[in-house]
Design brief:
Blueprint (H helix, E strand, L loop, with lengths): L12 H20 L30 H12 L21 H13 L10 H17 L13 E5 L2 H20 L7 E6 L5 H9 L6 E4 L11 H13 L3 E8 L11 H11 L2 E5 L24 E5 H4 L7 E5 L2 H8 L9 H5 L18 H36 L3 E5 L5 E6 L6 H17 L6 E5 L2 E7 L7 H20 L1
Parallel strand pairs: 2-3, 2-4, 4-5, 5-6
Antiparallel strand pairs: 1-7, 6-7, 8-9, 9-11, 10-11
């Protein structure tokens, strides 16, 4: 049979080698040509069903024919997050090191829910998260040698959910299960929507989720005064303040909540304090950005997505917690078939008790590879380069009187908009919506938007590993050209 391909065995080291090489070549070529694709996929909904057969093949097909379909049918429906012209949402980095770690993890393919199921998986995760905690200068209570420690979750949303469950159960153990309806969760109107989702899952009543209003005067950061007011009001009404989620680098504008002041308030009321640094946490490995984490010592839990801006392929969300027993009490179940000597002796960490699913991948390999193959200095330069490129873009916007910077840039996100003279807000919003559609449908770049104080805002985030100055300048030219058409019309 052709290349032995049609005799593909369930596992065979030589076949793996041969096909693995072909796949790596395919992926390497993808990266080589990535700038030739429209960044935002231009297909219509349902396009793929028209191109693929109605049922799975009865007889095996060749890898070549599958890759041919990937090239002609799948890639047109891919939005290229790794394109150097990708400036939307927040980045979701891949890298050579991250890819190699992902490959190794997929290759070993163990399921490390308990220490015994692969001691190296648990122990490497503890070590690597201690390394990263030290790089971020997190308080030592987050290190695995004490009652705390770190664990890799799939996403920031999962991290938030598990710590909310830990906080909820800790309080309910003290005040009784019937108090669930009186628990209150706090964030700001800039907090990521994963907080509301976590509350929904955790059974926190929607009317007890306080998304406190932020404003332009303090750059959309959560104000300690408004938190104190809300808590005092809730306590006076017989409610129980449970949980605060503060953010370093909010999704809309990368606002930074004042951790120290907020943390002091949570301590006063015995509230669990979670810090979401999903995107901006990465920047805090640079000494000049670390001050944004000042006050993190007040936090009970801290989260950063290494899969966003830290060269680690999706998914890898690092969560640290000061009191792991709270998490374990909320999430541990030990049926007979999972019992083992090491777990029972209490000498090991079983990460199944720190997360929602039982099964878990060897994700620490990716992060370990990234830290070892790049080293801290290169990682810091990587972040600084993106921030400098964002600054470059911001300068270009600021020099063009047709545009306006809408929020102060803190990291690598620039919030801006076109501002036609003498026009009302409604019209300005409409023009910016159309401008966004125009640049995205050109396929040349991809950006996303938000709304701040009623203004429709364009978000330009630098963070893809292949982005260079020429891409940023090219993107800016595109905005300028589009602006000319919009303003003339
Ligand atoms: C600040 C912040 N928190 C949480 C999230 C949710 O991330 P995830 O997709 O890992 O759940 C995001 C996503 O962009 C975010 O920007």
């Amino acid at each position: 049979m052709e290349n032995g391909l049609l005799n593909l065995k369930a596992m065979d080291s030589e076949q793996l080698r041969e096909h693995g090489h072909k796949m790596v070549d395919f992926i390497a070529d993808y990266y080589k040509n990535i700038e030739n694709f429209p960044v935002l996929s231009q297909v219509e909904p349902g396009y793929l069903r028209k191109l693929l057969p109605d049922s799975a093949p009865v007889q095996p097909e060749s890898l070549e024919s599958v890759l041919e379909d990937v090239q002609t049918k799948i890639l047109p429906g891919v939005t290229h997050w790794q394109s150097p012209d990708y400036f939307a949402y927040f980045p979701s980095n891949s890298s050579v090191a991250g890819f190699l770690g992902e490959m190794l993890s997929g290759g070993i393919n163990m399921v490390g829910f308990s220490w015994i199921t692969s001691p190296a998986a648990t122990e490497l995760e503890m070590i690597v998260l201690d390394w990263l905690a030290n790089l971020l200068k997190l308080p030592s209570d987050f290190l695995s040698k004490g009652p705390g420690g770190g664990a890799i979750q799939g996403t920031a949303s999962e991290a938030l959910l598990v710590v909310l469950l830990a906080a909820r159960d800790k309080v309910l153990r003290e005040v009784g299960k019937d108090a669930l309806g009186r628990l209150v969760v706090y964030g700001s109107d800039q907090t990521h929507s994963s907080l509301l989702k976590a509350c929904q899952i955790a059974g926190i009543h929607p009317e007890n989720c306080r998304l406190l209003r932020t404003d332009t005067y303090n750059e959309y950061a959560l104000s300690p005064e408004s938190l104190t007011d809300a808590i005092s009001h809730d306590v006076a009404s017989g409610l129980i303040p449970l949980f605060l989620c503060a953010t370093i680098g909010t999704t809309s504008s990368t606002a930074v909540d004042p951790l120290l002041a907020l943390g002091k308030i949570t301590k006063r009321y015995g509230i669990w304090f979670h810090v979401d640094a999903a995107y901006a946490g990465s920047a805090c490995i640079c000494p000049e950005y670390r001050h944004h984490l000042n006050g993190v010592e007040e936090a009970d839990s801290f989260n950063m997505n290494c899969h966003k801006w830290f060269l680690t392929n999706f998914d890898c969300s690092a969560l640290w917690i000061k009191d792991r027993s709270a998490l374990i009490q909320a999430l541990s179940t030990t049926p007979e078939f999972l019992k083992n000597k090491a777990s029972q002796e209490g000498t090991v960490v079983d990460y199944k008790d720190w997360q929602i699913p039982l099964g878990r991948r060897f994700r620490s390999l990716k992060l370990w590879m990234v830290l070892r193959l790049y080293g801290v200095e290169n990682l810091q330069s990587y972040i600084r380069n993106h921030i400098n490129l964002a600054k470059k873009f911001e300068d270009l916007v600021a020099q063009d009187p047709r545009f306006e910077i809408v929020a102060t840039r803190t990291f690598s996100l620039v919030c801006f908009r076109l501002l036609p003279a003498n026009k009302n807000e409604e019209y300005v919003n409409k023009v910016n919506r159309e401008l966004l559609d125009a640049v995205n449908s050109s396929g040349k770049i991809f950006i996303s938007h938000t709304v701040l104080s009623g203004k429709y805002v364009l978000r330009f985030v630098v963070g893809a590993p292949l982005t260079e100055e020429r891409h940023v300048i090219g993107a800016w030219k595109l905005f300028q050209e589009a602006a000319s058409t919009f303003i003339e019309n």
